[in-house]
Amino acid sequence: MTTDIRLAGVIGDPVAHSRSPRLHGHWIKRYGLRGYYVPLHVRRDDLEQVLQMLPKMGFSGVNVTIPHKENVLHLADTITDRAALIGAANTLTFTANGAIQADNTDGIGFLANLRQAIDGWHGSVGPALVLGAGGAAKAIVSALLSDGAPQVIVVNRTRGRAEALKDHFGARVYVKDWTQISDVLRDVALLVNTTSLGMTGQPPLVLDLTRLRRPTVVADIVYTPLQTPLLIDAAAWGCATVDGLGMLLHQAAPGFERWFGCTPEVDDDLRQAVLA
Ligand code: ATR
Question: Rounded distance, CA 25 to CA 55, Å?
């Protein structure tokens, strides 16, 4: 039990859809902490002023969501290497004098989720195929490379964005066309969907998974629905599958630890609380 009341939240526009308040709220209650985690609707034009005020209002830090993840880097006093490499931040921590430290925990959240789901999993187990080239792909490619992945193959509908990832991250990143996915599948130890395909209301991601050499791990960052068509097909083919909710939960843990001073557990109770 802490003696002071800790404050944290999530800034975004829109922000009402965010599951972070429920997630952090579960941990605050579970560990008996005196604190609050609130959604904060912050417009782009107000971002700088809000970030100046939040530490003065007693906030320990905030998560950052769309559309502020890149812009907060221009307003931060210190930026972790991984946030600088990814070019975006999702976790800000305020020091006692109001300085802003920006971090990006999306990639380590992705890795922590894989390690929790798949015993002994490590980036160095083999090549990875990442579908998509947006912000989430950037964080995941960066994390896989730093975890020792020998090759990360990036495929994106718009090839130029995949090429930009290769230019950014270098020699171990390879770009293929969407039409070449089937040829690549047999060589990979991990397949990750970071596109919005498979999300409720979007077309499913349809691949010829019979090309995969089991036990390839298939991960999706989409978590609405939890079991995407890709994961259902992959499980039917005998692959180990990892859903997208775990990444959301694990990326939240480092911030919670810094702001509330308590290392939280990612377990089934938390999953149920966030899904409820
Ligand atoms: P995020 O930051 O969440 O990764 P994003 O930057 O909007 O979001 O990226 C979404 C990804 O989904 C992109 O790789 C996008 O492909 P494009 O770069 O070609 O836009 C991909 N995506 C979205 N809809 C898609 C579709 N119908 N088919 C294939 N890829 C799609």
Answer: 20
